[in-house]
Amino acid sequence: MRLRNTNRLPRLHHLLIGLLLLGWPLQGAESGAPTDLRVNAQRLQERIDRLARIGESPQGVTRLAFTEADLSGRAYVTGLMQEAGLEIRVDEAGNLSGRLPGVLPGLAPIVLGSHIDTVPLAGAYDGVLGVMAAIECVLVLGENGIRTRHPLEVIVFANEEGGLTGSRALSGRLNARALDESSRSGMSVRQGIAALGGNADRISQAIRRPGEVKAFLELHIEQGGSLESEGTDIGIVEGFVGIRWWDVTVTGFANHAGTTPMNARRDALLAASRLVIAVNRAAKSLPGRQVATVGRIRAEPGAPNVIPGRVELSLELRDLAKPKLDRVFQEIRRRAQLIGMETDTEIEFNEIDIGVEPTLTDPNLQEVIRQTAEALDLSYARLPSGAAHDAQNMAHIAPAALIFVPSAGGISHSPQEYTKPRDVANGANLLLQTLIRLDRQAGP
Questions:
Q1: What percent of the chain is predicted at pLDDT more than 90?
Q2: 23: Cβ contacts below 8 Å, ≥ 6 apart
Q3: Which pTM was predicted?
Q4: Which of 58, 64, 222, 327 ranks highest by number of CB atoms within 10 Å?
C-alpha cells in the first residue's frame, strides 16, 4: 500500500500538467468566468467620458496624435493600466502597451487594443472604446482572482488617425518615407514618435514576428449605420476592404461659351458629369457591398464663359475581394468609353500605386466570437469594414479579429458620434468572454 501511494503522486502531477496544457480552467475559473463574468458597465462608461474631456471643446474632441492632448490622454490611460496591474512599456514606434504575465510559461500573449488619438473635432468613442474595454477586461479578471494561461497585453497604437503608424510599425509595414511625412500636429511622424517616448531610428525593434502573438482582438464602433438600422447587437467583421484609387482626366476642347453651338461642343465637364453617374451605376450593377466614389472634381479653365476643356477627378473603389474591384473597374471603363465616343472627349484612368489590399480576419476567431455572442444572447451579423483599423495590420502577423457595436445614426469622426451604454457594455462583455474562450483553447 505504501508503494502504491508513493507512485500515485508523480502520476497526479503529470496528469495536472497535461490538463493545464489542454486548456482546463485555471486559478479562479471556478468562480464562473466562462459564462457569468461581466464588466462594470458604469465604470467603463465613466472612463470613456473622462478621456473625452481631454482635448474637449464646445465644437468637439480634438486629441491629435503627438500633441499635448494626446500625451495627456496617454498619461491617463497609463494610470488605468497600472491600476489593472499591467506592466507599462512604450516601444520604439511610440505604441503604449501594458502586459500581464500568464500562468503557463512560454505562451504567446493575447493582445487587445485600439487607439486614443482623434481627428479634429471628433467624438468620444472612436478607438477609445477598444482601449477602455480592453483595460476593463483585465481589471475584471483581476478583481475576480482569475489568472489566464496566456499573457495579456493591451496596446494603445500611436497615430492611428494619421495613417495607422503604430500598427504598421509593429507589423513591419511602415516604410522610411512615412516617418518623414508631416502629421496634423505640425511635427513629422519621426518627431512625433520621439515626443511619445519612441525612437524612429530603431523602429525595426518594434516589429512583432508571426507566432509572437496568439491573437489580436479589437473592439470598435461600427462607423456606419448597418447594425443600428437592422437592430443588431454585434458586427463580426469578416475583413477589411481593399481600396484602389485612380486619377481620371477628361479631355475635350475649351471654347467660347457664347459662340459655340451646342452640337459643336466638346465639353469635358459634361462628359465628366456623365462619368460620375456611370460610376454610381456601375457599382450598383453588381451584387455585393462594393462601393465606388468620385470625391474630387476640378474643371479647367474654370471661367463661367468658357466651355471646360479639361476635367480632373478622383475615383475610389472599395470591396472585400480583389476580383470584385477588378470587375467594377472594368464596367466603369466600358461605360467611360461610350461616354467619350458620345461627347467627343477622351477619358484616361491613371491608377495610383498606393492601393490597399483586402485583408481577411481570422475564421477561427470569427467563429469564437459568434459562439460567444450566442452564449451571451446577442444578435450578430457578419459584415466588412469599410474603414481601416489597426487590426488590419495586425492580421499580417497574427490571427486578428474586429468586433463592431452600433453607432447611433451611423455617425463617426464627429461630435455627434454616440454609442448607447447598453451597446458599449455588450461589446465589452463579448470581448471579455471571447478572451476567456481563446485563453482556454489548446495550442500556444
A1: 87
A2: 149, 439, 440, 441, 442
A3: 0.83
A4: 222
